């Protein structure tokens, strides 16, 4: 009976999580890599994009206009979001990565986490969902 209760409680906790686990697969120097990532639940559309420079982005669109992404960039000094580094300074993460964050003129938040050639971030996120999107993007900073 105790085991059944434990299984039920674990199942309920996982079901209540605000995240969905998925895998981001990208190619670097002809070799495929897969990376476990967490994504805020509730997205309505997924897109994969690869440009001529070798940047690969897996994006998630939300009905309220929010956008979350995980990306591999060919140049470790590049950004997915356009931002002015003379105005936006990075927060250094304990993992060795860095994060940029702010709000736009409509008070919607954006953030981009850098970990070597990997990026995770979001834009157009309302304050009540900021914590969930922050947690998901910080997860990338913890991956070695």
Biggest sheet overview: 7 strands, antiparallel
- The main sheet orders its strands as 3-4-5-9-8-7-6
Number of continuous helical runs: 2
Q: In sequence order, what are the helices and strands, one letter per element?
A: HEEEEEEEEEH
Rounded to the nearest angstrom, the radius of gyration is 17 Å
Structural class: alpha+beta
Q: Which regions contain 5 or more consecutive residues with pLDDT less than 50?
A: 4-14
The CA-CA distance between the termini, in Å, is: 40 Å
User: What portion of residues belong to β-strands?
Assistant: 35-45%
Query: Average pLDDT, to the nearest integer?
Result: 85
For the secondary structure, the number of strands is 9
In one word, what is the shape?
globular
Residues in helices, as a percent range? 10-25%
Based on the model shown, name its key terms.
144 residues, alpha+beta, seven-stranded antiparallel β-sheet, two-stranded antiparallel ribbon
Chain-wise SSE layout:
Layout: H1 2-15, E1 19-28, E2 31-40, E3 43-50, E4 56-62, E5 67-72, E6 91-92, E7 98-103, E8 109-115, E9 118-125, H2 130-141
Antiparallel strand pairs: 1-2, 3-4, 4-5, 5-9, 6-7, 7-8, 8-9
General description of the model:
The protein has a seven-stranded antiparallel beta sheet, with helices on one face. Strand 7 (98-103) and strand 8 form a beta hairpin. The protein has 144 residues and is of the alpha+beta class. The chain has two helices and nine strands. The longest helix is centred in the N-terminal third of the chain and has 14 residues, at 2-15.
């Amino acid at each position: 009976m105790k085991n059944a209760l434990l299984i039920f409680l674990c199942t309920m906790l996982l079901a209540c999580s605000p995240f969905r686990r998925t895998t981001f697969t990208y190619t670097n120097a002809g070799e495929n890599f897969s990376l476990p990532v967490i994504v805020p639940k509730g997205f309505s559309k997924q897109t994969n994009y690869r440009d001529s420079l070798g940047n690969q982005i897996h994006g998630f669109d939300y009905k309220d206009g929010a956008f979350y992404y995980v990306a591999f960039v060919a140049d470790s000094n590049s950004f997915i979001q356009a931002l002015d580094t003379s105005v936006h300074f990075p927060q250094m993460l304990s993992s060795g990565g860095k994060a940029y964050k702010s709000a736009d003129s409509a008070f919607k938040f954006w953030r981009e986490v850098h970990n070597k050639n990997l990026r995770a971030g979001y834009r157009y996120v309302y304050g009540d969902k900021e914590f969930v999107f922050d947690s998901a993007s910080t997860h990338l900073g913890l991956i070695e």
